Task: structure prediction
Amino acid sequence: GGVLIISSDGQASYEPGTPLNLNPGESISWQSMPGTPVLPEGSIILGQSYQLDAFPTSLAESGNVKIQFQEPTPNPDKMLAIYFWNGVEWQRLPTSFTTPIANFHFDSTSFAHTQIPDGLKVAVAPSQGVGVYAILESPANKIFLPFVQR
Result:
């Protein structure tokens, strides 16, 4: 029930929806990806993408994915969200954002505690199961109404 599922760079984690008991031969992991599937037009990735793997795949079907990122300069014409690559296209997930409470962050690369930089945020979204996740900044969906004059 206390399985910690975190990427090697410490920026992404998975929290199962129910206590997780791994049996022999079962596994679950986050992997930092060196590349990313083609992004939607006008979108940019914040940080990098991550692959959630599980055997059997049912281990990752519920719960939440979390990705830490450095918040960009606010832009009303852009939206931030965690996206999931379903093998064909990116799907925008309902995403909430928080600011880490602790003053220090454990760096899994150097095995040291470092001061959390200003602007560090955590994005949280429901798991879609095994696959690729990333935080994308994409054009905001705006509706322009015609000008009406009396």
Notes: The two ends are 65 Å apart (CA to CA). The first strand starts at residue 5 and ends at 6. The chain has no helices and twelve strands.
